[in-house]
Amino acid sequence: xxxxxxxxxxxKHEFDHIIERTTVLKKRFKQYIPYQPLTDRMLAMVxxxxxxxxxxxxxxxxxxxxxxxxxxxxxxTQLGRAEPIEDTxxxxxxxxxxxxxxxxxxxxxxxxxxxxxxxxxNGLTNEFHPCQVLADVFTFIExxxxxxxxxxxxVGDANNMSYTWLEAARIFGFTLNVATPAGYAMExxxxxxxxxxxxKTFTDPMAAASGAHLVTTDVWTSMGYEAETETRKKAFADFxxxxxxxxxxxxxxxxxxxxxxxxxxxxxxxVLEGSQSVVxxxxxxxxxxxxxxxxxxxxxxxxx
Length: 304
Hints:
By secondary structure, the chain is of the alpha/beta class. It has helices at 12-30, 52-64, 85-92, 106-114, 130-144, 160-172, 193-196, 205-209, 229-235, 243-248, 269-272, 279-299; strands at 42-47, 68-73, 98-102, 120-124, 151-155, 175-179, 199-202, 214-217, 254-257. The chain contains twelve helices and nine strands.
């Protein structure tokens, strides 16, 4: 039994298979070809952090594969009444086939997985967002081919997305340029020696984006840090992804954003809605990547 709690839980050969299966499943979806290998399988979706895209993509995905989903949150379950996460894991995993958790601390999903009898997927934590970055990598491959040897520019906060992009850089073999304001840089303790060959850090976002094949960003204030909003707006004022920044990137560079986006803050309307933006395909691809992921976790490798 495998869990998907961060990208480094899987090897490159496993991601190659999942990306191949994503292509197949997306094609079937577009052609209205039914494919339901997970009939009678049950997915428990545990939300301590709410999300539009995560809920819709997982719930629609398991239904399309023939299974069903149960939505759980802290307000309507014992999760909000101080039940130990280990106890919750022992109970829920006896009743379902797969669990997706979207929560705060990575430690929480790690503890849940350690006591679960079924595979666990990290739908987001403060530290990592593996499903989103896997969808982003797939989106790049879908539009531009292999991401190996390319340069990805991350502009903004050193958050769960940037750390997951760093894992992706090591696994898929590309360079990650990370541009952050002073005081918001990546923590040295979270950058492994094996990551350093793939990481370049900048305080100038234009320098980070120069020649990049993909420019990507996120909101300046992640969920749980709302008290810092005004301070962050001042610190990140020069980190808006605009047309000038995209013009400094490679000629065929793509723009991505995990959404929701704050137009006029981390990205301009022109870039978000522009010809280089693939944010809507990126959002849709969460559905297809996660279907391939659930298929793999429950059934193993499937011949295409």
